[in-house]
Design a protein that fits this description.
Largest sheet: 6 strands, mixed, barrel
Distance between the termini: 31 Å
Order of helices and strands: HHEHEEHEEHEEHEHEHEHHHHHHHH
Number of strands: 10
Strand order of the largest sheet: 2-3-8-5-7-6
Strand content: 15-25%
Number of domains: 2
Number of helices: 16
Oligomer: single chain
Helix content: 40-55%
Shape: elongated
Radius of gyration: 32 Å
Length: 416
């Protein structure tokens, strides 16, 4: 056999039958512990990836990949600016918008709201609100008819349904014969949407951009800005950088990573903390490897002394036990990956089966906005998790191997 003597002896010690089965049992527990830790690491963080993707998709279904606004909060000739933006290869479409905060009332019920004036035909190209309609259609917003579309929770809080009317009160004031009066207008509810995120369903409303311009007394043709849909939303920083150079200092261009920076940063931080916590689980499992090797070193004192007497160096003795611990860590890591990846890929079906088996629901739709458990298995991350876990197991072998290397032949063979 053409293998180094350290590797040969390390493999032999791993396979050897001992007088007691306790050491073998500890080795089995070590493999199982590392496997369970890697399994949990892959499944939990893949599910967190899935939740993050779902939250991002729901957020971006209502907000834009990027926006272009004037520094004074208004923009003229939006058609020309939209054409300049869509000329970039990374931009699919553009749509104008007017965005203001208002109060809405229906009888004694009052609620704050964020109104967005839109062009229905163009809005369908930059957001998914048309696909999230519970009742009515986004095209029901017609200029001059003063229709409005409300989020489902906002409609419930105001107690209105499709066909009812609400009063929209703006922060602007009008001077009349009886004094300064708040500017308000009655709107007809022509539709209700539901995204599945409280932030939008409880506070968002849509109206036609021409009606919004009249309500907020904007000059004809003026808007707050234009919203962009990009070919690749993960390329948003590069596209906005290019557009920044195209439009110059006259306009302010932001992408979705800046608009929701704190939210996505919190998700990333949570994932990092969970990664560290689950690595600690693997570190605890790696302590079993320390126990296994320490017991093996004690059991093989005479063998080590004979090898030393035959001329084997302390470094070679150390390598033997590092190899033995590495094999345990490698098997544990591979088993964890082999079990974790299929489970993560099929977590939705597995959770559905468990819910049916126990007649329960883990994430009730009436309580949680995201009621389906999904996972996003990323090969690079799985590789990173496996390498990190394997590195911890290798570190766990150093002390027992160092202790074996310090064995003195004369002392070990004294009572043999």
């Amino acid at each position: 056999m053409f293998q180094p003597k350290e590797l040969y002896i390390g493999l032999r010690y791993t396979r050897a039958k001992r007088k007691t089965h306790f050491v073998s049992f500890i080795a089995f527990i070590s493999i199982a512990g590392v496997s369970l830790g890697v399994f949990a690491l892959i499944v939990v963080l893949s599910v967190m990836n899935g939740f993050g993707n779902e939250l991002r998709d729901r957020t971006l279904s209502m907000t834009s990949h990027a926006t272009i606004t004037g520094f004074d909060g208004t923009m003229s000739n939006w058609e020309e600016n939209a054409a300049r933006a869509t000329a970039h290869s990374g931009v699919i479409s553009a749509a104008p918008y007017i965005r203001k905060e208002v109060m809405m009332s229906n009888g004694r019920r009052v609620s704050g709201s964020l109104v967005r004036g839109i062009k229905p035909e163009a809005e369908k190209n930059v957001s998914m609100v048309a696909e999230k309609m519970v009742s009515g259609e986004i095209t029901d917003l017609q200029a001059g008819e003063y229709g409005i579309i409300l989020g489902r929770e906002l409609a419930n809080s105001l107690g209105v349904y499709e066909g009812d009317r609400v009063t929209v009160i703006t922060p602007q004031a009008s001077i009349t014969a009886v004094g300064v009066m708040p500017r308000l207008r009655r709107f007809k509810v022509v539709g209700v949407f539901e995204v599945g995120m409280h932030e939008f369903d409880s506070a968002m409303a849509y109206m036609h951009i021409e009606d919004a311009g009249k309500l907020f007394t904007l000059d004809e043709g003026k808007v707050n800005g234009i919203r962009l849909k990009l070919v690749d939303l993960f390329d948003a920083k590069r596209v906005t950088y290019d557009l920044d150079k195209t439009f110059g200092e006259e306009f302010w261009i932001r992408d979705w990573t800046r608009q929701h920076r704190n939210f996505f940063k919190a998700l990333k931080t949570e994932k990092t903390v969970m990664f560290i916590i689950l690595l600690m689980v693997i570190a605890v499992a790696a302590l079993n490897i320390v126990s296994t090797l320490v017991m093996t070193v004690t059991d093989k004192q005479a063998d080590i002394a004979i090898l030393r007497a035959l001329g084997m160096t302390p470094r070679s003795i150390m390598a033997i036990f590092i190899i033995q611990g590495t094999i345990i860590g490698l098997f544990g890591t591979l088993i964890g990956v082999a079990a974790g990846v299929p489970v993560a890929l099929n977590v939705f079906e597995i959770v559905s089966w468990v819910e049916q088996l126990f007649q329960t629901e883990f994430l009730p739709a009436d309580v949680y906005y995201i009621s389906d458990i999904t996972a996003d298995v990323r090969p690079k991350e799985v590789f990173t998790y496996a390498v990190a876990a394997f590195a911890i197991t290798i570190l766990a072998t150093i002390y027992p191997a160092w202790r074996a290397a310090r064995t003195m032949p004369a002392e070990a063979l004294h009572y043999e």
